[in-house]
Amino acid sequence: MTGHRGAALLRGVSAVGLALGLPVVLFALWWLASADSTNIFLPPLRRIVEAFGQVWLSDVFVRDVLPSLRRLAIGYAAALVVGVGVGYVIGRWSLIRALTSPILAFFRVLPAPVMIPVLLVAVGIGDATKLIVIALGAVWPILLNTADGVRGVDDVQLETAAAYRLPSWTRHGLILRAATPQVFAGARQALGISLIVMVVSEMLMSTDGLGFTVIRFQRTFAIPQMWSGVLLLGVLGFGLAKIFELIERRALRWHQGATGREESW
């Protein structure tokens, strides 16, 4: 048992090392390449790191970053609920899929920021508009992957469930469970999209938040501070992606065992 725990710990440390290795190398190269920079728009990384500590390790984090994370969480959660629910219905029943296919083909190619002027008129300036924009941007990968996953469920499973006369809610649960790998694939794509749309919406129509602060630094020519915001966005994106991978590995452990895939970061 002790040997097994030691091996698991070693694998965990190795996975963390592999995940952080390339970012650390790129960070070191950036530091060295920019050390002697005199370009006002490309300051040395040393100055950016100093600005990072001054700006984000202060009350600015509570005032601007936490509201952004709250909007991201709410918008992403709404996209998950709507995307999985509507995607299941579309994937499960062919008539609904045929009726909604033209509408989906139209709306899924519209970039979410395009809806900002319309929402400003219809909803007004406020968190509601930003939440709707985030949800609109994130919902499509989840919806489409869920629909494909439900459509691809093995007919043998459905016939077996029908032969055993399982209740309808149990059959729906089995179908959704079988489609879970593709649901997670769509949710992974949607996480990155929601972060991008959150920043864009805050840059265009907000008085607080991470995107607003970055654009304010740019307009006042506080270039190191602006770059520190970009750096923070990269760190947040990386951290959220790794947290999502941990959740996905736990939720899809049954799938990894069935397919023989090894867990990886």
Automatic annotation (TrEMBL):
Q: Which GO terms describe its biological process?
A: transmembrane transport
Task: Please provide the record's keywords in A-Z order.
Answer: Cell membrane, Membrane, Transmembrane, Transmembrane helix, Transport
How does the protein's chain sit in the membrane according to the entry? Multi-pass membrane protein
The protein's matches in Pfam families, at most eight in alphabetical order, are given as: BPD_transp_1 (PF00528)
The protein's predominant localisation is membrane
Q: Name one GO cellular component term.
A: plasma membrane
Top-level division of the source organism's lineage: Bacteria
Q: Where in the cell is it found?
A: Cell membrane
Instruction: Say if the entry is tagged with keyword Transmembrane helix.
Output: yes
| Annotated protein name in UniProt | Nitrate ABC transporter permease
